[in-house]
Amino acid sequence: MTPPGTGAATLQHEAIGRTDPDAVDATLAASGDAHAFERLYRGHLSRISSLTSRMLGDDDTDDVIQDVFVRAWQKLGTFRGESAFGTWLHRLAVNVILGRRETLGIRRRRHLDGDAALETVPSRRQTPEMSMDFETAIGRLPDGAREVFVLHDVEGYRHAEIARMLGLATGTSKSQLHRARMALRRHLER
Amino acid sequence: MTDAWTDRLSDYLDDELDPAERAALEAHLLHCVACGAALADFKRIVMRARALEDREPDRDPWPAIAARIGVDAGLGPTADPRPARPRRRWSFSMPQLAAAGIALMALSGGAAWLLHPVARTRLAVQGAPPTNLGIPAAVRAPGRGYDGAVADLERVLVEGRGRLDTATVRVLELNLAVIDSAIVQAARAVAADSANAYLNSHLAETMRRKLELLRQAAALVSSVS
Ligand SMILES: [Zn+2]
């Protein structure tokens, strides 16, 4: 008789290797497996962290990242595997970030006075010796334009979805994206 | 320099113009150097946005998260080296091509990680469970029939599961659940686009994978008999 452990290990590797390990970990984590949840966390941390700091235009996002993963842990039972875990987590993160933005009142003067704020993005003429860091330029966009730019051009959402998420008209999402690109254009080296 | 067309360039790049507007803008682009330059810059911006690297935060938030959800942060995850995962939701093809291409990439990965909104919408509207209509005949009836073969193997597994340790049974059931979910997704995609040869072969492949897993499982059961 073959020891069951050997066969199981082989089977586990072959089968899981060809399917989505996240889906397996999500199932395990939903049943309380903290190791599985930490694997999910490690696998998605950089993506969620980058999304958070880009969306909020701020690097000090520790507590928002915490909120995302705490919420994910609490909501794992609602993950049905209809989309990839990463897609589910990403959408949850966007919701947490948007909720947080409202709480913190991050829609500050830049949002109200967007055109003036665009001018606060230093132009290449002011820093001729080097092109401005692209991340920094994104971070200095007005909130509305930055959020749409991050969701559309960085993350790949379509305008209809962005409009739903942000509570905007689709046309507003499109015009904010265009504003963002026009502002960023001034800071690209030719 | 901007003109009346400049503000339409983003919509053009994102394939958001109707055919008449697109044709008019393309005619304009033939002779407007300023709009051509702006469009080229927008393309570069989009490419740079897509190429941005994700970065981990300076401090690892895990200890704080672990404390908040009431688990021990000190154990560390069990070793699980994974291949680098695809990032985000788009491909590097331009938007006009993406709408046609990304659904296939998403499904060929066996996971919806890359699933583009276009593809996801198509899956989402197919709310009904898949039927055999979407399942290629070649898979549905290889020899005495796919369903029959699956049923046979599942019976072997049910009867033999008592001989396997619980960890093995759990791994098997998880994997079967994952594959069943992949089959549902693939079948829905086929139902939405039944003429798509790629989707059909992907569904067939996913179903073959299930059959293979069941065969391995059955072999495992008999090996411990
Ligand atoms: Zn022009």
Radius of gyration of chain A: 21 Å
How many β-strands of chain A, per DSSP? 0
Secondary structural class of chain B: mainly alpha
Total beta-strand segments of chain B: 0
What small molecules does the structure contain?
Answer: zinc ion
Distance between the termini of chain A: 70 Å
- The CATH topology of the largest domain in chain A is given as Rna Polymerase Sigma Factor, Chain: A
Pick out the low-confidence regions of chain A.
Answer: 1-18, 107-117, 119-131
Give the overall shape of chain B, derived from the CA principal axes.
elongated
Q: What are the secondary-structure elements of chain A, in order, as H or E?
A: HHHHHHHHHHH
CATH superfamily of the largest domain in chain A, called what? RNA polymerase sigma factor, region 2, helix turn helix motif
Distance between the termini of chain B: 80 Å
Please state the average pLDDT score of chain A. Answer: 80
- Shape descriptor of chain A reads elongated
